[in-house]
Design a protein that fits this description.
Low-confidence stretches: none
Organism: Kribbella sancticallisti
Oligomer: single chain
Protein name: Major facilitator superfamily (MFS) profile domain-containing protein
Distance between the termini: 73 Å
Keywords: Membrane, Transmembrane, Transmembrane helix
Strand order of the largest sheet: 1-2
Helix content: over 70%
Number of helices: 6
């Protein structure tokens, strides 16, 4: 660009229009680039994705495998407790010199103690089986414990049916040398009914409680992860 000042010679002004234009273009390009950049804040890996609800129906409900293996553990625990009780009973009888004659003189007391020990042993076994089933299934521990009890009930009914059928064919009951218990038939019937009711209900409650206890292990972990 040229400018004249009076009669003096022409002075030339540096041409800065092209440099200014390039600067403005570069700044506009930088602004466009900055506006297209998206800053993503830190977030958990699962944020933005569809959450997985572990409480959906496919994860819940009765699990045949968990109940079956819990039932197997219950049988093993029942056998172990039976051996322990038998060993303890033999040891105590030897130490206290408790003979069969003493048991016959106190037949009622001996029968009640035996029934109570039986119910307690079976309840502990069912609690253990329910715990294992609830721990394996993770959800709905009470249902798994009920499954352990139902397995036992069905198999006990099947065994009773087979036993009745075999007795009708071979008269097995009359061949058994039953001891002469000094108790009346009414006492035996009452004690048998009470023991049967206890064996039916208390193991069920123990299995339900064991299943809920086994589920609590996973509930504690879920609470820590939340």
């Amino acid at each position: 660009m040229e400018q004249r000042y009076g009669g003096t010679d022409t002075m030339t002004e540096p041409n800065v229009s092209s440099a200014t234009q390039r600067y403005e273009e570069a700044r506009a390009a930088a602004e466009r680039a900055m506006t297209t950049v998206t800053v993503v804040p830190d977030r958990p890996p699962t944020q933005g994705a569809m959450p997985i609800d572990v409480g959906l129906p496919p994860y819940r409900g009765f699990k045949f495998g968990a109940a079956f293996f819990g039932w197997l553990v219950m049988l093993s625990m029942a056998a172990l407790i039976t051996v322990l009780i038998a060993g303890a009973g033999i040891g105590i009888s030897n130490v206290l010199d408790y003979t069969r004659a003493d048991a016959e003189r106190q037949a009622g007391t001996a029968a009640m103690v035996a029934a109570a020990v039986l119910v307690l042993a079976v309840s502990i076994a069912f609690y253990t089986g329910g715990y294992v089933a609830g721990r394996l299934a993770r959800f709905d521990g009470a249902r798994q414990g009920f499954g352990v009890w139902m397995f036992s009930l069905l198999l006990a009914a099947l065994a009773a049916g087979l036993g009745a059928y075999a007795n009708s064919l071979y008269d097995l009951v009359d061949r058994v040398d039953r001891p002469d218990v000094p108790l009346s038939n009414d006492d035996l019937l009452t004690g048998g009914l009470i023991t049967a009711a206890a064996l039916l209900m208390l193991p069920l409650l123990a299995a339900l409680l064991g299943g809920k206890t086994g589920q609590r292990y996973h509930d504690k972990i879920d609470d820590l992860l939340d």
